[in-house]
Design a protein that fits this description.
The protein is mainly alpha-helical and about 160 residues long. It is built from 5 helices and 2 strands. It has helices at about 10-35, 40-65, 80-105, 105-110, 130-155; strands at about 120, 125.
Amino acid sequence: MKHLTQYIWILFILVNFFNAYLLRKKAAEFIEESPEKENGYKIIFKNFLIYGSIPWIIIGIGNTFGLTESVFDYFQPSKMNPMVLLFHFSIIVIWILLIRFIFFKNGAKFLENHPGIIRVNSFGNINDNPSENTIKLITIVGIIGGIIAMSMMWFVAIPFPK
């Protein structure tokens, strides 16, 4: 019998769809106030589902076809497994596309104009409509955190169960 961690990618995809559902539900309030923004919200949801699922689909392919042993393989890219490298490459491409969208395609302004998508919790106060600059800052901090995490996966030997 295969180890349960080989199927964790299914849970990650389900969580991604559940988060999209919650975003859509939250956005419904704002769409009701500004129906002309509905198409913008649809674009956001579609991209959220597509780009948010790609890494988990790669894990699913690797685990299902025996190209990786479990989800833990993806934390050890220095072993140079092609599926693990593809997973990490997909994340880097998604970051590049995100940076391009936020900073060079007016994506931060687009998200500012579509409240409810980016929520900022500041000392217990929820802001459903952060400014363009706040969205840019969140993007930078998030990507820096991701780079640190990915660097640790490359350079720190972490023992995982078999």
